[in-house]
Write a structure and sequence with these properties.
The chain folds into two domains: 128 residues, no CATH class; 172 residues, Rossmann fold, CATH 3.40.50. It starts with 6 loop residues before the first helix and ends in a 7-residue tail after the last strand. By secondary structure, the protein is an alpha/beta fold. Bound molecules: S-adenosylmethionine.
């Protein structure tokens, strides 16, 4: 099996002369733009859209959701008149409809990429963890299609609750943990972090901490496979985009702002509920990282980087794509 020896250079090279030239020139929206959402007075949620509901409402702090390129449907300005909104924790109101809005689409892409990685890099695993597992679709897939024992880790109790209801496979154990303090019940052969999970860590030191904890929970020879959005967000023109997402029981809008100067994506999710419930708003923030930064932090955490792909085409990228798929390995011989 060939290892890419000078991996820092590979990731470094990707960052050079690519992102900067393509980024939008304007500074994007500020994170304080929640007040910019105004809701129409008419109740436009269809009766047959009403949810059977699985929303949690206990508080959770944190941030983030991927939005780039994920949203389907028509663009819609969310309203005309000024109705106050209720601020809720990230992934709280979203959890019950996450799969329909974003999760299934993400799962299909992730599964395709993962199967390529397994074939190409000969990844073997009996025990795995999917961190930032959300509603557990991928964790469940690892158990059902690969026969693995899987730890599905997330910090959102709402997402975990939905996951635990939908995936009742005894091989999958849901754990509420923060990536930065990851402590699995046993070491695993594979850790995955899909759909921008690592971008939810907003500082390089948090990302470093997460990488260290992932390395600590991997067996020697174990793999870490993840995607990460980079600062090459050419697709983010115009600076602010609004999408309507598919959802049940509400009208759901996603507004994405990209601040190229700070490398931050701010994603506002607006839930417009049937009356009399007031609309609710979640703010998610993600940081885009350069390939060089990611490479350095992985190497500092003791990983070897085996490969880097454009997460969409799955080819080895020539420039810096908006989203990278990274295959890293903890050095050492597997004990099996
Ligand atoms: C965009 S969602 C991705 C969910 C899932 N991986 C998928 O592919 O659909 C990001 C997930 O990461 C979780 N998350 C964000 N920061 C986290 C952290 N520091 N520790 C654990 N989970 C985190 C969120 O709660 C959310 O469920």
């Amino acid at each position: 099996m060939t290892y890419i020896a000078d991996t820092a250079n590979i990731l470094d090279g990707l960052g050079r002369g690519t992102a900067r030239g393509r980024m939008p020139g304007r500074t994007g929206s500020r994170l304080s733009h929640l007040s910019e959402w105004y809701i129409r007075d008419e109740d436009d949620v269809d009766e047959d859209d009403r949810d059977d509901g699985n929303d949690g409402d206990d508080g959770q702090t944190g941030s983030g959701i991927n939005g780039v390129g994920a949203a389907g449907g028509a663009s819609a300005a969310p309203g005309l008149s000024r109705t106050p909104t209720r601020r809720v924790a990230p992934y709280s109101d979203l959890a019950a409809t996450y799969d329909r809005a974003l999760g299934i689409r993400s799962f299909v892409r992730t599964k395709r990429a993962f199967e390529l990685v397994v074939r190409r890099y000969g990844v073997c695993f009996g025990a795995a963890a999917d961190v930032g597992c959300g509603t557990g679709l991928f964790a469940c897939y690892l158990a059902r299609c690969w026969g693995a024992r899987v730890f599905a880790v997330d910090r959102s109790p709402h997402m975990l609750r939905v996951g635990a209801c939908r995936c009742r496979d005894p091989r999958v154990q849901f754990l509420r943990q923060d990536l930065r303090g990851l402590q699995l019940p046993q070491a695993v052969d594979l850790v995955t972090a899909n759909f921008d999970t690592v971008n939810h860590l907003l500082t390089a030191s948090d990302l470093a901490l997460a990488f260290q904890r992932i390395a600590a929970n991997l067996r020697p020879g174990g793999h870490f496979v993840f995607d990460v959005i980079t600062r090459a967000q050419a697709a983010m023109r115009p600076v602010v985009q609004v999408h309507r997402l598919p959802a049940r029981g509400r009208a759901l809008f996603q507004r994405i702002g990209w601040d190229p100067r700070r490398g931050l994506l701010s994603i506002v999710i607006l839930h417009r509920w049937p009356r009399p419930s007031p609309p609710s708003v979640e703010l998610h923030v993600e940081r885009a990282y350069s390939p060089a930064q990611v490479g350095r932090l992985l190497l500092d955490s003791g990983f070897v980087i085996r490969g880097v792909h454009d997460a969409v085409s799955l080819r080895v990228p020539e420039g810096c794509p908006p989203r990278l798929l990274v295959v890293a390995r903890k050095p050492g011989r597997p004990d099996r």
